[in-house]
Specification:
By secondary structure, the protein is α+β, with helices and mostly antiparallel strands. The chain contains four helices and four strands. It holds the Pfam family FliO.
């Protein structure tokens, strides 16, 4: 293999490490910043759903009241008013987590449980294959 291949491989590995480092920095310090961007406004858009090219539904909080608002081709209408419990439920679901370190990200994001399940399933399949091999002999 020539020198150019190894140089390209080295650049790819360094780039990958840099991207992982950026993900770590954004996960650690970005959560609070993203949360504070809209936090000080009187009117907050909690949720937005695009229904078609020109129609959208919004969940808007104005002060202490919440509304479902529809936007359709130049018209904006209030569909209904939301109860305080529904608003607090939506706000709690929209919280952005700020992770302290990679272990915190690993445990709180659910990666730990996912890896445990996949590893457990893999081990189960492997044990079944070994058992089947023993039964055949």
């Amino acid at each position: 293999m020539d020198l150019q291949f190894w140089w390209m491989l080295f650049k790819i590995i360094i780039s990958l490490l840099f991207i992982i480092f950026l993900i770590y920095i954004f996960a650690k310090y970005g959560g609070g910043k993203l949360k504070s961007i809209q936090g000080s406004k009187y009117i907050n858009i909690l949720e937005r759903t695009q229904l078609s090219k020109e129609n959208s539904l919004f969940v808007v909080k104005m002060g202490e009241k919440g509304y479902v608002v529809s936007s359709a081709s130049g018209r904006i209408e209030i569909v209904c008013e939301l109860a305080k419990e529904e608003i607090s439920k939506i706000e709690s679901a929209k919280n952005v987590y700020e992770y302290k370190n990679l272990k915190d990200l690993y445990t709180k994001s659910g990666l730990e449980n996912l890896l445990k399940k996949t590893n457990h399933n893999f081990l189960d399949k492997k044990l079944k294959l070994k058992k089947e091999d023993k039964d055949e002999q």
